[in-house]
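Late entry, evening session. Most of the bench is empty. Finally got around to the prediction I had been postponing all week. Sequence below, unchanged from the version circulated by S.P.
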Amino acid sequence: MRMGKSLFYTIVVVAMLGCLSGCNFGFKTNYIYQNGEKYTAGNREIAEKIETIDLDYMSGHVKLIGTDANVVTINETSEKQLDDKRKVHTWVDGTTLYVRYCASAKGLDLNNLKKNLEITIPKEVALGDVKFKVSSGGVQCEDFEADSVNLYASSGNIALTCAAKTVDLHASSGNITAILQDDSDSVKLDTSSGSISIDMKNANKVDLHSSSGKVWVFAKQIKELQSRVSSGTGEYHFTQAPEKSDISHSSGSVEIYLPKDSDLTGDFHTSSGKVFYELAFAKRDDDYVCGSGANQMKVHVSSGNIEVKAAEEK
């Protein structure tokens, strides 16, 4: 029986050590991706026209900046002297730029490299898709145009300034700040723990979600808006009332700024708080109606006030 228990514990210890060598828990890491042999290690300039960027970066701050230069540059810094296997790896396939954290290899020691990456692109080039995944670190993108921008940061902030038709930003633990410089079709911002701030023009559909953090919005016109906040305040500024909006805050007051002459039907409800308004609403059953009432707005707050304020005329 003792021999059986001893063998069992030996197997458990070996299994744990195997996991530690195969996963990133302070020892060795397996980092495998397709076509690894085609990638180039280290900093470089790329003269080819790039329309799509696909990036996977394990740890560190990543920047994508539009510049007046006519080439793409890859510039990585680290507090350590890196061999080729631990340097950033890039591959150009047609008009797609693939960026990976290091070489495709098993058993790499990637601890405490403290790397940061900056990519510059000619800002006059309209990109197709920009897709970033950063496992531990922040993302900063600015001064470019793209059809689609998809940014994911497991632990870090996301800051985006660009013109894009489709925007999808997700931060597991961090703030999201977005400035959209042109009209968009679809905008989705999601953070598990952090605030959301977005300044935009016109959009067909906007979906916002924050589990814990405040939301600040400025928009010209949104056809359909959904905003879900579990714990945090909200401040929404609209040049024109959205055609359809659904705003929900579990805990935190909400302020909404609208033109005085808005055509709006409001469903405003707070479980613990009050409703205040500066617009010329008339009560119709449980609804608040202003003008023709053409646009539909639902605002529900579990704990906090709802304030509908008149936007300043410009």
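Two things to note before I forget:
Residues 1-25 have pLDDT under 50 and may be disordered.
The chain is about 5% helix and 55% strand.
Will write this up properly tomorrow.
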